[in-house]
Design a protein that fits this description.
Length: 212
């Protein structure tokens, strides 16, 4: 279980700090909605360790995540349009998620395995700039699979996709969340994405999360 307790944070010049408390269970998607500017991305940045809170706790199965720097946190982040290196092949983009000491044949096997898991067996050699938006998001998901970190943060991950691709991509997120027992935190404006995926829902307003 991921537990966030009284996590307080203020941007420069912000008089009333955010105060975030919520829980997210393994194998479930937890949705966070809220108006533009309400602090959703700020919350994800705190979880990822890109921002430092004034006080509060983030625990994963009893382990204190605030003590860890971003690179050591068991967290992956997937954004709206994923930052693939456009000039690199899909498989090279994924390889960047592997530890540097990984041997060549092991790397090739793991890359093939995660590409298959997201349904992209054949796109490994394709340069990222030639992939569709949905394929790029799935390559990005394949990279998070490789790291297999138990917390997956999604910030409007489907909003650049057409309706049909959005449905297949979000189904894939749900399948992978269940299969790998990820604690998936989904920030989304789309009520139907939330309805399709979320087991637990929160609404962010006036700096706090309310169960919705
Ligand atoms: N680095 C920063 N310095 C000062 N204020 C910031 C900074 N980053 C964000 N803010 C402010 O904090 C508030 C919350 O921003 P945040 O990006 O978390 O909102 P959001 O809920 O993700 O919005 P959206 O739905 O538009 O993505 C906004 O008022 C924003 O202007
Ligand atoms: Mg945002």
């Amino acid at each position: 279980m991921l537990r966030v307790d009284e996590l307080r944070f203020a941007h420069p010049g912000q008089s009333e700090p955010y105060n975030f408390s919520f829980i997210a269970a393994p194998g479930e998607v937890t949705a966070i909605s809220g108006a533009s500017g309400s602090g959703k991305s700020t919350l994800l940045d705190l979880l990822a360790g890109f921002l430092t809170p004034l006080s509060g706790r983030i625990d994963l199965d009893g382990k204190d995540l605030l003590a860890l720097p971003p690179e050591a946190r068991p967290v992956s982040l997937l954004l709206q349009s994923e930052s693939l290196f456009e000039h690199l092949r899909a498989d090279r983009n994924i390889e960047l998620g592997l530890p540097a000491h990984t041997g060549r044949s092991e790397a090739a096997a793991r890359i093939a395995q995660v590409l298959a898991e997201v349904g992209l067996e054949d796109v490994g050699p394709q340069v990222a700039s030639t992939l569709s938006g949905g394929q790029k998001q799935r390559v990005a998901l394949a990279r998070t699979l490789l790291r297999d970190r138990p917390v997956l943060l999604l910030d409007e991950p489907f909003s650049a996709l057409d309706d049909e691709t959005r449905v297949t991509t979000r189904d894939l997120v749900l399948t992978l969340t269940r299969r790998h027992a990820w604690h998936t935190i989904l920030v989304s404006h789309h009520a139907d994405d939330v309805a399709a995926l979320a087991s637990r829902r929160y609404r962010l307003a006036a700096g706090r999360l309310l169960e919705a």
